[in-house]
């Protein structure tokens, strides 16, 4: 589906404020409330807008440590390991990356002790993981809140 300028503007506005009313959206893009509602419904039906959600500040919610992991996995174990890790409540996101069966994972935990526990008890115990590299975030400059058009 090709997006026209109005669809792009709707997505941009919604990315900044997902709670904005159809009336306010309509005013900003110069369409009727009904037309805006139909366009948003169409964008959702086509899968361009996947869902509406909240963005939680993990630090203020008690998750003080944010770390990224590169997890090298035995190729035949990749799907199993990825699902096992994806089910862990400390794992914020996980992606299969190019390279030798590598998973890229973002983990949020309360403190350094919890990070140590996560690594020792929940990563090293997973069968099929060959190597783990980690980096702890010191400061966040920008965080992704959805794709900007």
From TrEMBL:
SUPFAM superfamilies: Dimeric alpha+beta barrel, Winged helix' DNA-binding domain. GO terms for cellular component: cytosol. The keyword Ribosomal protein does not apply. InterPro entries: AsnC-type_HTH_dom, Dimeric_a/b-barrel, Tscrpt_reg_AsnC-like, Tscrpt_reg_AsnC/Lrp_C, Tscrpt_reg_HTH_AsnC-type_CS, WH-like_DNA-bd_sf, WH_DNA-bd_sf. GO terms for biological process: response to amino acid. GO terms for molecular function: sequence-specific DNA binding. Residues 3-64 form the HTH asnC-type domain. This is AsnC family transcriptional regulator. It comes from Ornithinibacillus caprae.
């Amino acid at each position: 589906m090709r997006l026209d300028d109005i669809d792009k503007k709707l997505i941009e506005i919604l990315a900044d404020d997902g709670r904005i009313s159809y009336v306010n959206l309509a005013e900003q893009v110069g369409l009727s409330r009904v037309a805006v509602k139909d366009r948003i419904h169409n964008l959702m039906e086509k899968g361009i807008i996947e869902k509406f959600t909240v963005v939680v500040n993990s630090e203020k919610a008690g998750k003080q440590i944010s770390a990224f992991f590169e997890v090298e996995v035995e190729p035949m174990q990749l799907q199993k390991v990825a699902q096992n890790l994806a089910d862990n409540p400390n794992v914020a996101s996980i992606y299969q990356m190019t390279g030798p069966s590598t998973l890229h994972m973002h983990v949020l935990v309360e403190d350094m002790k919890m990070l140590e526990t996560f690594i020792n008890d929940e990563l090293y115990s997973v069968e099929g993981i060959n190597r783990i590299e980690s980096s702890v975030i010191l400061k966040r400059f920008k965080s992704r809140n959805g794709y900007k058009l």
